[in-house]
Amino acid sequence: MITKYIFLFASVSGFIGVALGAFGAHGLRGKLDDSAMHAFETAVSYQLFHSLALLVCLILMTQLGKYWAFTYASYAFSIGILLFSGSLYLLTVFGLKMLGPITPLGGIFLLAGWLLLSLGIWQKYQP
Predict the structure, then answer these.
(1) Distance in angstroms (rounded) separating the CA atoms of residues 78 and 61
(2) How far is Cα 106 from Cα 62, in angstroms, rounded to an integer?
(3) CA 32, CA 117: separation in Å to the nearest integer?
(4) Are 66 and 75 in contact (CB under 8 A)?
(5) How many helices (H) and strands (E) does the chain have?
(6) pLDDT digit of tens for each residue in the chain (127 aa)?
(7) Structure pTM?
(8) Contacts 24+ apart (CB under 8 A), 5-10
(9) If we measure between CA atoms, which residue out of 47, 54, 53 comes closest to residue 106?
(10) How many CA atoms lie within 13 A of 5 on its CB side?
(11) Is 79 exposed, middle or buried (0-12, 13-18, 19+ CB in 10 A)?
């Protein structure tokens, strides 16, 4: 059941990533300085890449089995997207500088997702 909600999160996250990318390219260009624009574009890129990584993780769960590492990787990717990209969006668009320390925490969750995904593959294919 949780897989259904994570699939939904991944697809909605991809949609939002594309929408915010278009918003940034057309609505924010010239309104943000170069540094803020770069941070916004980084948030969009990481959201889109990790939405795809989350989908890959979920597909592996459905095809190879629900190994605990795949499950936790999907949680880590989801939390990482929210914290990393979400904090950068709020920081750049609304100037909420107090959220700056949350961005690296989101990055740690994204890194953990990749490690857990690797571990899940290792669990499946270990000799």
Answers:
(1) 15
(2) 26
(3) 36
(4) no
(5) 5, 0
(6) 678 899 999 999 999 999 999 999 999 988 999 999 999 999 999 999 999 999 999 999 989 888 899 999 999 999 999 999 999 999 999 988 888 899 999 999 999 999 999 999 998 887 7
(7) 0.93
(8) 6/54, 6/58, 6/74, 6/75, 6/78, 7/55, 7/58, 9/54, 9/78, 10/51, 10/54, 10/55, 10/58, 10/78
(9) 47
(10) 5
(11) middle
Residues 45 and 86 sit within 8 Å (Cβ to Cβ): no
Return the number of other C-beta atoms located less than 10 Å from residue 40's C-beta: 23
Q: Does residue 118 contact residue 72 with C-beta atoms inside 8 Å?
A: no
Residue type, position 32, single letter: L
